[in-house]
Predict the 3D structure of the following.
Amino acid sequence: MSETPSPRIAVLLPCYNEEHAISSVVHGFKKAIPEATIYVYGNNSSD
């Protein structure tokens, strides 16, 4: 019998001109959920 694969976690972070804050948000998620894949979407930002 094959094993059931573990669920995967994705964190989706839409942002708009969050240049100064996004780094700490990403680091916070990586600390809280290290196995997660984090995607940051710029949402047509100018930064």
About this structure: Residues 22 and 38 are 12 Å apart (CA to CA). The first helix runs from residue 22 to 32. The helical segments are 22-32. The longest strand covers residues 10-14.
